[in-house]
# Entry
Amino acid sequence: MAMDRVVEYIDAHQDESVEQLLELLRIPSISAQPDRSGDVADAAAWVSQRLGEAGLTTEVLPTAGHPIVFADSGPRDDGPTVLVYGHYDVQPIGDPDKWVTPAFEPAVRDGAIFARGAADDKGQMFTHIRAAHAWHAVAGGLPVRVKFLIEGEEETGSPNVEPFVRAHRERLACDCVVISDTAKLDPETPAITYGTKGLVYKEVKVFGPAKDLHSGSFGGSVANPATILTGLVAALKDEHDRILLPGFYDDVKAITDTERDAMGGSGFDEAAFIEQLGAPCAFGEAGYTVLERRWTRPTLDVNGLYGGYMGEGAATVIPASAGVKLSMRLVLDQDPERISRAFDDFLRARCPDTVRMEIETHGSAGAYVAPLDSEAMRAASRALASGFGREPARVREGGTLPILPLFKRELGAESVMMGFCRSDCNLHSPNEFFHLSDFHAGTRSAAHFLGNMSNHSR
Amino acid sequence: MAMDRVVEYIDAHQDESVEQLLELLRIPSISAQPDRSGDVADAAAWVSQRLGEAGLTTEVLPTAGHPIVFADSGPRDDGPTVLVYGHYDVQPIGDPDKWVTPAFEPAVRDGAIFARGAADDKGQMFTHIRAAHAWHAVAGGLPVRVKFLIEGEEETGSPNVEPFVRAHRERLACDCVVISDTAKLDPETPAITYGTKGLVYKEVKVFGPAKDLHSGSFGGSVANPATILTGLVAALKDEHDRILLPGFYDDVKAITDTERDAMGGSGFDEAAFIEQLGAPCAFGEAGYTVLERRWTRPTLDVNGLYGGYMGEGAATVIPASAGVKLSMRLVLDQDPERISRAFDDFLRARCPDTVRMEIETHGSAGAYVAPLDSEAMRAASRALASGFGREPARVREGGTLPILPLFKRELGAESVMMGFCRSDCNLHSPNEFFHLSDFHAGTRSAAHFLGNMSNHSR
# Structure
């Protein structure tokens, strides 16, 4: 049977898969940093080449930002069409000194590949390319029609995907979308994520004097933009971690007792989880467990803070400006546009006229919850069970995939998220990793998924 | 008369003075930055060499930090002993892109030298060395005994001067201290500063999770250290800019009507001053004018703010830590130790146990007000009138010279501060400058001061 031979092929070519992934991980495709745009383009070209080698017709399509790689195995008479979505861009690396081995010099140790993007999303995305490659090598083609949309701006909020999808609705037409950009439940258990949060990402800059001033000579003369900024940020939440933007919770559905019971019974070990994060204790909106907050409650977090003298030691300046980057994670039915306006209005009403304020929106996307009873969902469950040898868990996730509500709206397609990596894989942190065993099991699962989709259609 | 010939010598050797100052300004002696310690040592050696050329016995003495340059013209039977204090270290340069010409490549334009340290304090300090040099060249020696104490840690709060002065009380013995590290009143009028503020400089770091976390996956799990930090900073002041530390104002004397009238009648143009700073409007403690706040009221300013992702664009992290650098400027009778404790206690009581907090003190010093009727004050007034051709103003200053209360306590000596540079000379900011005409007039004034001190003693 073709499926068995495809899996044999995948297992026999593990070294080749790993070598190729290491190549991709060496490209520092940080989408947030303008001086990396050449590297981002290199990563796109690399992905396109691998898709071509898997027998697909591929294109690297320009956008107003970084390019999108599109590939298509071509029309056929039978069966559904699967769209694989992923991204080849990565997060910035943060403090390079915190990496055991350099972020863009992937190193294999303790059975895992350490590199920025190892899991998010280069490694996980690449499983689907290797699965297609195996089908192509063994069976001369894919068991269903498969399209790939691999973008390069996911880590900056996917600003150009929406116009792209709108402009290419027919080309992207599909019956379901499959994505691997989420995590397993625990080291042994793969997971299908059926819900993600929305995102509104803001940067607020406060400007005071025309230049940094000596805080001794000029203290008491003008408002300090950094002081004003701390007051604005502090006003966003109360001490019980409730977000104070007017109307913020208006469209948030209360958790039902059934959901609450399901999450309570999920076996999630809150104490062990917090200990693993290294924080003194759990903290969040009063009245909810950690899992309830992560899966079903909107949140607001400061992501970055800057202003004045940030070097070692002391410098006595009144900063000319100060800024904060912060983001809100939204749940189903919260409208990102409305939340965005509420945020701006709240700060504008509070910012004193002793300073000047600018607000920039870096990203805005809605939440998504997938139906649990679809063909694709069943095909994914069986594929993960085959690939990992263990039934997958069904989970929700606090992260954001802006593409999900977009695909639903523009293509009428629901998405299935198969998670292969560990939940503690240092996503967005130093020393990001992806276990080799998970990479290979993920590749097998991706191959099974295509096979299962083909069987479903018969 | 010797005095006339000294002034002639100074004016005839202006080019040599400028060339030498440019040499000193090329040394990037930033005391706050550990990787600049070699440069700081170079600046000390350079200063020592120039003092030797002025006929003084000089030494570069080590401290626990950067070295102190000490020089002495030697004992004599008559006249008072003058101690010249200054510093050869400089502030960090901030954003290099904001400098029209590089901070450590001094450039002369529009009649001024542009470089970090041009005014604060290399340029102003060097006037006294050139004045001594001129006396030495013309008269074969100085008219009174002169000692120099030129330190290299003033910009980091002079942490090692106090033990140095205590250990060398007899060596430093003097009748008065003269310092040029303050500004003129306006472009035409030199100034004697008779009061400075104290300083308590703190750095507060808040620690949360062991590493930066994905704000989507982990939002709602743990407290965000940057959010907590903004709340702590915002709690330090009310909306009228009153500092909320318990007991903070206990030892602050009310301004008398006489003082208020004097400051009101000083001709200070508040609107022009604020316009020059480029801020939307004046702001500070309610109930006081800008000049009252700057000269007589304690202040608190955030000097730096940092945490999480500070690069371009967006990154969705919960930062592992965040920090703030901030300083309080104190007035006479406020005890820096007591204020320091009040600050720490206030934050410790407010910091939730969801995070860990560290408080570091970078500097602590008292305020100082000099007597207006001393011999040295009269000698300085006449010297400035001679050097600049205009009677000096008497002003107070919001900056801190930690050395002043120290000299009074340990050496029993009062200080006189002669200000040569412009008040808008971009002290601690990009494009710091010192007018050549002020440099030369300052050098003449420094020479006159020594001559006047000699006459006083006869």
Remarks:
- The longest helix of chain B spans residues 436-457.
- Chain B touches chain A through 103 residues (CB under 8 Å).
